[in-house]
C-alpha cells in the first residue's frame, strides 16, 4: 500500500517539470507554425532556378531559330555562287 500512496502524491519537482514541458510545447507549436508558413511561402514563390530555366529555354529557342535561318540563307548564297 505504500507504493500506491507514493504514486498518487505528486512531487513539486514533477509538477514543475510538467509545467515547463507545457510551456516548451507551446513555444515549439508557435515555432512550428512559423516554420510551416515560411516553407509554404518559399514553395509558392518562383525560385531562382525556375526563372533561370525559363530564360535558358528561351535563349535556346532563339538560338535554334537563328541557326535555322542562318543555315538556310548561307545555303542559298552558296547555290547562287555555284550557278555563276
TrEMBL record:
Name the InterPro entries on file: TRIQK (IPR024842)
Q: Where in the cell is it found?
A: Endoplasmic reticulum membrane
Would the keyword Transmembrane helix turn up in this protein's UniProt record? yes
The source's superkingdom equals: Eukaryota
One cellular-component annotation, GO: endoplasmic reticulum membrane
Membrane topology label: Single-pass membrane protein
Main subcellular location of this protein, as a coarse class: endoplasmic reticulum
Q: Does the keyword Transmembrane helix apply?
A: yes
Transmembrane ranges? Answer: 51-71
Cite the entry's keywords alphabetically: Endoplasmic reticulum, Membrane, Transmembrane, Transmembrane helix
User: Record's family?
Assistant: Belongs to the TRIQK family.
Q: What is this protein called?
A: Triple QxxK/R motif-containing protein
Species this chain originates from: Clupea harengus (Atlantic herring)
Q: Which gene encodes it?
A: triqk
